[in-house]
Amino acid sequence: MKVHFYKYQATGNDFVVMDNREGKLSLTKEQIEKICDRRFGVGADGLMLIEKHASLNFNVEYFNSDGSQSLCGNGSRAAVHFASKLGLVNGKSTFNAYDGAHSAELLSTGIIRLKMNDVAEVKTIGTDYFLNTGSPHYIRFVDNIHAYPVVEEGRKIRYSDAFKPGGTNVNFVQLLPDNTIYVRTYERGVEDETLSCGTGVTAAAMATSLKGYTSPVNIKVKGGDLSVEFKSGQSGTFTEIFLVGPAKMVFEGDLEL
Ligand SMILES: N[C@@H](CCC[C@H](N)C(=O)O)C(=O)O
Q1: pTM over 0.90
Q2: Residue 90 sits in the same domain as residue 164
Q3: CATH code of 159's domain
């Protein structure tokens, strides 16, 4: 069976996107792994099916490259760009994802401003933090981020007993001047460092606000620049959270399933 796909990147987090509004596509874990494989397939950190939704503009079914599912912040921004290309939305949009309903805006600059769901709690673990921004995220502040062994240390935390059985994504964050942070993320489901993680930088911005940084927090990742806006509530609660950054279609093609 031949399937048309679109390749997207959002600050270097890359995705295979397919239009499944007719509901004909149902992919197995093995098919997802093969499509996302960088040698035997198209190659991507994740895969998304864009589907119809009864009351919102569309539904996003997101899969990590190993076939597991969660919310993808960068993927959702790419999905909004794709939905706009399909003519499903014009400027403002609403859609359903793994953690429920979201709204977003595609600005004339090509930047996507995605509303994230509220954060009810930030746990403190020694000098580290843990919170859920639609996906689970562990945050550790480090110095000299560029030399930090992200994969080695990330893997230890991701597979630690404390986070079994689901595991967690792990973010290493360096505080920079001017309300800016540099974030590197070990992503579960990709089982490697990615160039950017949207739910991860959102979690990092929340943790950084507990250290006195204010909204918007400017984010630097290996794949580019983002920003996170939010309102802080009492004792580690956050509302009005927006993940803001670019997403681009890179190429399209057909693949044999
Ligand atoms: N890259 C994503 C996060 C995707 C989900 C994550 N790997 C998980 O399984 O929790 C993002 O941009 O948020």
Answers
A1: yes
A2: no
A3: 3.10.310.10
